[in-house]
Fold each of these.
Amino acid sequence: MSTVQALTSSERAASSRRRRTVPLSEPVFRGNEWRYVKACLDSGWVSSAGPFVERFEREVAAYVGVTHAVALVNGTAALHLALKVVGVSPEDEVLVPDLTFIAPVNAIRYCQAHPVLIDADPVTWQMDVEQVARFLAEECEQRGDICYDRRTERPVRAILPVHLLGSACEMDRIMTLARQYRLRVVEDAAEAIGVKYAGRHVGTFGDVGVLSFNGNKVITTGGGGMLLTDQPELARHARYLSTQAKDDEVEYIHHEVGYNYRLTNFQAALGVAQLEQLDGFLTKKREIACTYEALLRRSPAITRIHVPPHVEATYWLYTVLLPPGTTRAERQAAIRFMTEQGFEARPLWHPIHGLPPYRDCQTVNIEHTPSLYDRGISVPCSVGLRAEDAQRCARTLIEWLKR
Ligand SMILES: *Cc1c(COP(=O)(O)O)cnc(C)c1O
């Protein structure tokens, strides 16, 4: 109490402004979270074995419609194992979007493989599949079952589409290309739980799909991930690698270099409780998107994401583009303005090809990712966001544009 009284009036004003900041994406725990976590403590099952781990796997598998789900410490670890079990090896190449959160690209590097960075479609912002097709047709050569990059002489082993912002990549086209060139497909659906493409959940088209339950995703386990597949051998291998590749529990016999990547029962307990609320969360996400659309649609200066009619989006992070020609500095000023007005806002991801660890990467006709980065801005869209806050946020953005 004495510290409160010791604050000057300007400090008090600053702290109340801070308190009023509407966060970008914060979790909501209003279901059985406490009850299930308490059950872990009461039973003593807190580590990486226990009933909630199996239950979470079973329920996620049923929800998305696959036969196998493997619970892992986070989405990045799930991507790493996904690439390993489909056979991505050192000196292979993997096609991945240039516009993405960095995790899938890092996972390629963990396998000592080489990312080949593909441009984004300027309208859907997802990986441009026509550039994938063009690269495979014009710059690669099929020898037997293996597709070689003619310039580097390396095998192109896999495509890693990332379903960005709660929308979806063109999976039909990607699967056709994968069959034609005999490539494996690992889908990064970390941002896309609940998203459907042609009526089917994303992450279930390729050989393996990956979900994330990080704190800023639609449902969370604090940190967590899930590997999805219909191929029992891939699930078995992933589970084996995630538990130190243990062949004999008692004698400590291991036949491969394994990892300690298993999710704990504790986290899975949170996951089961969150999953029970997922449908309500998704309804809320779509309502928030509608609230924003209703106001922003009237501003011709703003471009919204195009979701194709065969995609059911969830609008994980509600994101818009500022007018064409907006510079990075102008977008930074817009984010500062939004923050001053009490709304947390973020840019889209920095194109991977410009980041120090990936500056030397091969790129395929990068044309649109820099301007998407310069113009993109994500605004608050937590499941607990109030409609009036979304409306005030949309009006604040329109106000900035009028300046
Ligand atoms: C969040 C995210 C991940 C990584 O998930 P973690 O659970 O944080 O490791 C991977 N890919 C994309 C596209 C993401 O947004």
Amino acid sequence: MLDRIKNELAISQTTLVAVSKTRPNADIMDMYQKGQRIFGENRVQELVQKYEDLPKDIAWHMIGHLQRNKVKFIAPFVDLIHSVESIRLLEEIDSQAKKNNRVINCLLQFKIAEEEAKFGMQVNDIKEFLQSDDYNTLQNTNIIGIMGMATFTQDKKQVRNEFRTLQSIFNELKEDIFHSKEDFKEISMGMSGDYKIAIEEGSTMVRIGSLLFS
Ligand SMILES: *Cc1c(COP(=O)(O)O)cnc(C)c1O
């Protein structure tokens, strides 16, 4: 399954984040032996444990809801945080990154689904912040793109529209804020059930779990 998905993604040069949450280390190592190096987790404790147990050249991505008081546990090693859904969280990541003498790459998460439970920022709030002096003081975080999750539904048209909304938020931030920032280029969207639509709508990074490990 890994090879099939990788071939599909190669055409559009989309990055594969193998979502390994709840999977045992042996399953991750199988995929590691086949060359996969980027893995995504959604719980801090599990992420830290797997980081400690598994090869150090794995790039670990945090993709799930992140509480501010837990940032310190992943700050020493996390490669990319997809789920930055508040300014206060971004500030905490910056402060913990600084303590570790590193710069942590981040994606801003936006709410595109209709379900209430999905987290995310408001475009106008974050735009105002990104133009403020407070943002300029953040030296240890690097915003390289945005992330979103579509509604869990069979309605493909709705999913496509939600991905389009995310793409348009990306374009707006690129034009208005990050026009000269070359590494602001990632759109993390698409999971097992909707990654093909996501790629058609401009995803640069898909987060696939169940389909990959089944
Ligand atoms: C679990 C999870 C995924 C992967 O979901 P699958 O349907 O198993 O591919 C992607 N993104 C987030 C944020 C997740 O929590």
